[in-house]
Model the fold of this input.
Amino acid sequence: MKTDTNNPLTFRKYPSTTALQCFETAARHLSFTNAAQEMHMTQSAISKQVAQLEEMLNIALFYRTPQRISLTPAGKAYYLEVLSILKHIEVATTNLMSHSDNTEVLKIVSYPTLCSRWLLPALSGFSQTYPLINLDIREQAGPFFSEDQNADVAFLYGDGIWAGMEAIKLFDEYSVAVCQPEYLQNKNLNAGTMDNFTLLQLSSRPSAWYEYFKQQDISMDGTFVGPRFDTFHACIAAALLGYGVALVPLRLVEPELQTGSLVMAWDYAAKGRGAYYFCYPLSLGRSHKVKVLQEWITHYLKTSDHDKKELKITF
Done:
């Protein structure tokens, strides 16, 4: 079959990796001389690679003067794209070289605080038990599944309904109001009186305190005033430093309650509207590595000690 070289859809000519590296280095330094030193090439070789790249693209990437070079608008845009491409190549190559032929990578994403305070303890010993599964764990607030991320598993909070996803419920969320023990000194602990209390808030849940008091049939007038934070981790840290009272999921603050570094301002745990789920794309329903992780997490939940009655909390 004869190839139509005039049709860009059937024939494409891509620049070499060397040409892209030369362009990226020259663009970063805005100097062919410095680029040549970093690349261990001659200045003329760097300049030739860039010139050939411009010829292939049929567009100028640099403005050239006897004293200096600078990126054209097209060169600036192309530099960002090339930088991303080279980073992807570097990561892919490093991952391949660091793993043996018979291993596979399990990509996991999770909320930052949930990851550090619950997921990492839950995964303790997993790599020793399954040495051929390499965990790639990332902390983020979202989105959790996209073409760039290509995640295998996510630990999400919500109603359990996500398009194209299998969601397995792990546990409900119960939130407690916690603070430094010294913070409660000389304060009226009646939940209906907020005088002298600073209520720490999570930016993504502006109505959390209203719901906490509403579940107790406590009517609160006015607006809750207090510092706002992006993560539960920051809320907990602020509470430990005596900033005020933080409303956080019980599972994320159990260690501090057990040691007494934090105490509950009010003896109540508010049930959240959502729950935490183990999620993965439907296309990975038969994936061995996903199934193994699901079984591991399920076993951890069954065997770990989460008897909240020991903390004397009202539900």
